[in-house]
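>> received
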Amino acid sequence: MGNKGTQRYHRLQYIVLLAAIAILARLFYVQLVDDKYKALAEANIMRVDIDYPMRGEVLDRRGEYLIRSRVCYDVMVVTRDIPREGFDSVRLATILNISMDKLRRELRRAGPNSRQPHLVVGYLSQEAKLILDESDFKGFYTRFRTAREYPRQVGGNLLGYVSEVDQRQIDKWDYYSAGDYIGIGGVESAYETLLRGEKGISYHAKDTRGAIVGSYKDGALDVLPVKGTQLTSTIDARLQEFAEKLMIGKVGAVVAIEPSTGEILVMVSSPTYNPDLMVGRQRNENVSEMMRNQRQPQFTRALKEHYAPGSTFKLVQGLIGLEEGVLVPGDRYPCHMGYTYGKRTMGCHSHASPLDLRRAVAESCNAYFCYVFKNIITSPKYGSVKEGVRRWSEYVKSFGFGEKLGCDLYGESKGFVPTVEFYDKTYDGRWNWGTAMSCAIGQGEMACTPLQMANLAAIIANRGYYYTPHIIKAIDGQDSIDRRFYERHYTMVSEKNYAPIIDGMWQSVNDGGTSRAAKLEGWDVCGKTGTAEHYRRTASGGRYPDHSTFISFAPRNNPKIAITVYIEHGGFGSEIAVPIASLIEELYLTDTIKRPEMLDRVLKYTINYGYYDAKQRKYDEKHPKK
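>> returned
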């Protein structure tokens, strides 16, 4: 009996010992190996908050704010900390200026009894924050944010905006989490990594009731946020505002460049939008309204739209002809209201005939540059038209056409320069010099962006080279911007061959040419008009007016500004593009406007956009407003 009792006793000891070992092993695993329980324990005594930095500001070239940040707050909720009784949801919704439906919806999304913070509403003002803090709503707290504001309310397409990240962006970049904001479009997007700064982290201690009682471990674990970098842009804010004002009621673009640096002084896409509409709780509604507008105010035409350059491209033909030796400035060609080849005629307007190169530029003669273009691509030294076109395409691309210029904004288009391969594919190898004849005057297959057209003006102003156009002039804390913006890009045309072309542009403005409305006393303005045909038809089968375009630089020697204006359906280049460009040049060069009659005429000039109106009606029929 005694032996059996002893055995049972020892067995019981073994069981107790094994149980103790199991418990100790489990405690060892929970406390030293498995972080899950440690995290749960810390979650009961600590709240982790992301501290968002002030986003970097953007200044204009004179130090005036184009974009700055103001303080606002996100309202967060931890539903586990909301008391079961005494929660005045009606008062909370009133303080947050949201509907009860919105509040209930966000609480459902947060999930019941959740420890995870959830965004209820953003863009809370400092005044509302103070009221919320005084009201002491358990489970709700504010998170510091900044919102963008635009003192001049200009440059919507140019500057871009800030928006909450979507899942695609979260998956693409490690930096972002749900609830973060990111730059969309323009400067905000192109320089996002500099503007956003670096996020910080704060750890807050909680008491047994979940109330914040101070910093966790006296802030020893906290990481301070780093403010975003301040950028100085190349834009002249006053000039940008003036140009946008001139473009009201018109569809098109304006781009102005400082030739000696490649700095973009003005970039307008019209219609544009007030960037303040992209800030705050009404942003989504404003975006939807812009998307309904068939004139596409959100579309950056200056960078992305493909336009036929029209007669401004004759300058390139003349330069190539001079370089290739098939043209000398004194060569005279007749014009009898156009140029006839085969059964086709390239029409022209009435002017003196015959003309030399300088007067052909000044009068914008179509026939003259058809002769020049034919002589280039049929030159005997090439052996065939195909080789002539191949060489011509190389010349044109050296002027920055047919390729992205490399501007520091995203979304730049290439435009299009027709090549031998293009014609072979399009015409199954059966084509001749007449097939490409529309290119002689910048029509047909030729397409370019307004930025490329302004760059052409800068190339001629510089007598053969350009700097890559760019929008940022200086970055705070850095000695210089990207070195590529200081490099010269030379065309295939020698400097000496620019002189007669510049003479012709000067005559066009100052000696009775098609650009005479651009004359500014004492400034030797040089310019070239363009009237670009298009192929849009009215509902009755008629044609909408042609596009109006103009490129210019001033003064003739040591130029300070090169500019292009492109107005869809604006008619002749001299009709509206010339006065717009001239007024912008006048303000920039003289700091004043001394031609109030011209200014008044431009401001009142509104084009009837039957094409866009028809598109709008079709869209509205398919997408009726709710």
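>> The CA atoms of residues 210 and 609 lie 62 Å apart.
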